[in-house]
Design brief:
alpha+beta; 288 residues; 10-stranded mixed beta sheet
Length: 288
Amino acid sequence: MRLRLDLAYDGAGFHGWAAQPGLRTVEGTLADALTTVLRHEVQLTVAGRTDAGVHARGQVAHVDVPAAAFAGLPGRSDRAPTEALRTRLAGVLLRASVGGPRGTSDLLVRAVSEAPDGFDARFSALARTYSYLVADSVTAYDPLQRGNVLWLPERLDVPAMQRAALPLLGEHDFLAYCKPRKGATTVRELQLLDITRKAGLVEFTVRADAFCHSMVRTLVGSLLRVGTGKRSEQWPAERLAARTRDGEVVVAPAHPLTLERVDYPQDTELAARARRTRAIRTCDCEPG
């Protein structure tokens, strides 16, 4: 049977999501915890494979488990199997945590639920939303937030960055903003790229149907060049139109980036959405 797992994690202690031999990763740590509890090896599928140092509040994964092992999780208690699994995972992950205050964990399974028919954490998703935080003044610097905020010595021109972001919205080939993977498309639909100043911090909110490798950090890095006056407001659109990784590529640091949420369609549309997503897209659209 298939289970949906809703996750949150502090990415500082992980080498990204994807399991790698000899390295601590979110996937590897969570898979080990599930294997310990279920006494059965598992394979995870995730909505967004976050890079090293990237955090998540609203990550989603799914895992297929033997029905008998799942049904036996409550033992003699009257808890539901989903709640029994969540509780037992919390204990295992607490022991597996690295650094941080005593009694805390850097990886949490917020909820476990039986997945509806057709659910695929990766391919059924409609959109992923990320946030990125920047402090650009001395009064906004807070050493207690240095693990998830980028500190800049220069005041950012937020309106200029907002204007520069507008031509990037929509469906485009984002090759100039991605590290391409062999056989994978770089066509994406950028649904939201909002830059606002809140409580002294500059917050980027970025939503797309999917993201290719380093896309969010390259979008933010390029807009920061505009915000500091190092590049014109037209430069990000010019980079998009070039459809090449040649030239100046600016990838912002990972630690201020957080996966905030993943959106899915109604249950009856999950399977159809997954089929459409699996199709490799091409794009004849012009930037802007």
